[in-house]
Amino acid sequence: MKKLILATVLVINVVIFSSCEEKQIDSQKPAINLKTPAEDELIKPGTEIHFDAMLTDDLALRSYKINIHASFDGHTHSAGTRAVTDSVAFEKTWTEADFIKLGDEAIFGKKEVNLYHHHMTIPAEIGGKPLKEGHYHFIIYCTDEAGNESFLAREIEISYNAEEHLPH
User: If you ran DSSP here, which 8-state letter would residue 2 be given?
Assistant: First the structure.
């Protein structure tokens, strides 16, 4: 009888302690290794911008997006802030869904993904007017499954004197 009681208590303790396992809390932001475009890279209007990046997370990635906008007013992007500008000559955001429509795979649930795109065209004109040349910000945002977001910003220069990029 004592063995039965001891065995029952042991089983109950195992069930209680196994159901009280700590869930891992993800507070680590995903990492972004942006290979291209390079800092201060020249991009010719009307051409596609080359984008190559490695995204990693300790548990699982969720999504990413890319934004390009003018930086004529000299604003910057530092960790934890997002700049607002009223001097935008060109601004566009490409979401992961845009790239998936073109045949790319989703990154959801993966720990590491290498992205390589040539699907982002810098317009030569907007509303019939030539695109304003100058400095622009190229920003990639990455979010993990827990909702942690990181971003990386590069300055690029849009110029009609830039050489046209050739696909690799």
Answer: H
Q: Parallel, antiparallel, or unpaired: how do β-strands 129-130 and 125-126 relate?
A: antiparallel
Rounded to 5°, angle at Cα 56 from 83 and 79:
20
DSSP H helices, 20-166, are: 96-101
Contact assessment for residue 145 and residue 25, using Cβ atoms and an 8 Å cutoff: no
Residue 9 lies in a domain: no
What gap in Å lies between CA 45 and CA 92, rounded to an integer? Answer: 14
The verdict on residue 19 lying in a domain is: no
Q: How far apart are CA 20 and CA 164, in angstroms?
A: 59
d(CA 166, CA 168): 6
Interior CA angle at 52 toward 73 and 101, to 5°? 95
Number of domains in the chain: 1
Structural domain containing residue 130? 26-158
pLDDT in tens, 83-132: 443 333 788 999 999 999 988 899 999 999 999 988 899 998 888 888 88
* Lookup: tokens for 57: 């997370």
Task: Let me know: does 150 contact 141? Beta carbons within 8 Å.
Answer: yes
Instruction: Report the predicted TM-score, pTM, of the whole model to 2 decimal places.
Output: 0.75
Q: What is the CATH number of the domain that holds 48?
A: 2.60.40.10
Domain assignment present for residue 17? The answer is no
